[in-house]
Design brief:
This protein is of the alpha+beta class and 354 residues long. It has ten helices and eleven strands. The protein has a five-stranded mixed beta sheet, sandwiched between helices. A hairpin with a 5-residue loop joins strand 1 and strand 2.
Length: 354
């Protein structure tokens, strides 16, 4: 639940780990965070000035390029502090991509082996057809029973040999198929994208919440999570499952349309979406939810000759360092249920114990 807190291992700015039992006093934490933010702010200004001086537009790509380039000129202590934050923002995407690519190559190799065995099967079946045609001609040209028996015995021998070969190749195909199926399952478990709705999947959502929680612990900023679901009243009034799916896809499209570059939209499952709002407090998340509800309700959706007004329920919660990703998700879903039960509102904020 939202009010269940779980102890977490903390990491200080030097990279070593300490436990909750030796957490610095609030004033000490504030000083450390302010010093860290001050170093980054000063460095960011230097990067921006360098971009302008060189006549380059301060686009995200150019800023990122100059950010990395000028980092080598900083002191070891400053560089260490900034790199520690960059490491938190990274999600090992390169390593994940490498593992995924290796699994895909293994899968392609296995499929290639299967195709090779199938090609041999085809060759052997074609050979058997030619043997049968030859034996048939020999039987037609035979002059007696003895000749026919000899040809039949020869045919039985040919069939027996081919049958033995086919059995071995069938066993190989089954083994290769099982191996390929395992690889495909592994690839599916490592994906971060939901193909049905064109957004990120649950696995990636949980990972990003955990990552954002660690950043909040480091930088002490505010971020929020909202969970979105098509109105249960609307879903219960429509029995056409295909229509419900189309409505759900429309919600996904609208979420992508209204989200910022820094936001992350994901499909949690069972018709529920999530949007991770980075550097967004509860009040700003409420405003974003209100805009989203207005956008959805003003979108046209036709079911046959009837126009259906789409309606959603949204649950809002803040992302904190002392709650797990699952606790944060449950908190937002509880708020979503609260919004659904209150017919006068479309969104609600999770209540937490202090």
């Amino acid at each position: 639940m939202a009010d269940i807190l779980r102890s977490r291992t903390r990491r200080n700015i030097t990279g070593t780990q300490t436990t909750e039992s030796v957490t610095p006093k609030p004033m000490e934490q504030k000083i450390v965070v302010e010093e860290l933010e001050g170093d980054i702010e000063a460095y960011a200004k230097e990067v921006l000035s360098s971009l302008i001086k060189d006549g380059l537009p301060p686009t995200p790509n150019n800023f990122s390029l100059y950010f990395d380039r000028h980092l080598d000129d900083k002191s070891q202590n400053t560089r260490k502090q900034i790199v520690s934050i960059l490491e938190l923002e990274e999600s090992n995407e390169n390593e994940n991509s490498m593992t995924l690519e290796q699994n895909l190559k293994s899968g392609f190799s296995s499929i290639r082996d299967i195709l090779g065995v199938i090609a041999n099967l085809y060759k052997n079946m074609n050979l058997m057809t030619k043997i049968l045609e030859k034996r048939k001609e020999e039987l037609q040209a035979s002059s007696g029973v003895n000749d026919s028996l000899s040809i039949t015995a020869s045919l039985e021998s040919d069939i027996s040999k081919l049958n033995s070969i086919l059995k071995k190749q069938s066993v190989n195909i089954k083994s290769m198929y099982d191996n390929t199926a395992d690889i495909i399952k592994t690839v599916e478990s490592e994906t971060i994208f939901d193909n049905q709705f064109g957004v990120y999947n649950k696995r990636y959502l949980v990972a990003k919440i955990e990552q954002e929680s660690a950043l909040i612990q480091k930088l002490n900023h505010k971020s929020s999570l909202i969970m979105i679901e098509l109105s249960k009243d609307l879903k219960s009034s429509i029995t056409n499952e295909k229509a419900i799916l189309l409505m759900t896809k429309t919600i996904a499209r609208l979420l992508l349309k209204t989200s910022r570059r820094s936001d992350m939209v994901a499909y949690y499952g069972s018709g529920i979406f999530a949007m991770l709002l980075k550097h967004t407090d509860i009040n700003s998340a409420k405003k974003a939810s209100e805009r989203l509800c207005d956008l959805v309700s003003s979108s046209n959706f036709f079911l046959g000759d009837y126009e259906v007004q789409l309606k959603i329920s949204i649950g809002i919660t803040d992302i904190t360092e002392n709650c797990s990703a699952q606790e944060i998700i449950v908190s937002s879903m509880d708020a979503m249920e609260k919004a659904y039960n209150d017919k006068e509102v479309d969104f609600a904020v999770a209540l937490r114990k202090t």
